[in-house]
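Sharing a chain and its predicted structure for anyone who wants a worked example. Both blocks are below, sequence first, tokens second.
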Amino acid sequence: MPSRRRGRRHRGACSPRAGQSPLVGASPAGAVVRAPGRWGRAPGPRRIARCRGHRRRGRAGPPRVRRRRRDLDRGLDDARAAAHPLSVRRFTIAPERIDGDRVAFDDEESRHMMAVLRLVPGDLVIAGDGRGSDYTVRLETLDATATGTIVGVAASRAESPVVVTLVQGIPKGDKMEQIVRAATELGVARVLPVITERTIVRLEPSRWRERARRWQRVAKEASKQSGRSVVPVVEIPRPLADSLDAEGADLALCMWEGHAPPLAEVLARVRSPRAVRVLIGPEGGLARGEVEAATARGWSAASAGPRVLRTETAGPAVVAVLQFVFGDLSGAVQRDG
């Protein structure tokens, strides 16, 4: 028995070498000729027939049976999509590409479906329209433009009741991508990169627009990964002085590692805000003059505690606290009253 198990593990061992017949050596008439196998033993004639490439592949059954199995699989897919929406592949779609119960995905999403994920007609996917609705779509054609039929629609449950805008001082390297990705997963609605006094990166306006497009792609992928139907808007970087308008925000936080009250103390002063802005500085933090300019326009300075956080940590950390206290991160949505 042990030798048989070892032989199955090395099924390719009975394959003949190039230019050599599997029946090696002379033998008398009527004798069974055995080919030398690996590990110095000769496999039996049945083992030769079981070698790789010699096995027969059975069909799935007559066409009627195959159609029945396909319909059954589709029914199971529908039930699985309804019970576990996060287990279904997610894509984004512009509202104008929805026509009645028909949808047509853009070139980028179509190429991802066909060339990367290897989806086939009949598969179920979820398409978020960027406005808070999730469409369950059964794919029909996978070509340059993937199309499908809507089989269900539901309001997204992955959006927080708190609309958070992250005003982030631009850091060095690819740290901004990390910030955008984490902030998107935590439910941020908008990311506004700003150029501060201590920002090291200085680019031409055209280069900033290119960076913003790349950050927007990161936000799109993070939205699909986290099950969101709304993709946060990543603005083109602008000077901090042009981004200090706190009008319309119930709470505007200016995070500063200087002499500022603790974040918990500032949050205790407000009740159930629905629009929050958070200002985070780049490496080195915000300058004192920038903090004074922000507080003069209605921002509340706050400290994250006795430890100094890196810029790629501070923004997501504060957003997580806001979502826990006022949003849906705790599992219970805060209500007025």
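Comments welcome. The first strand starts at residue 90 and ends at 92.
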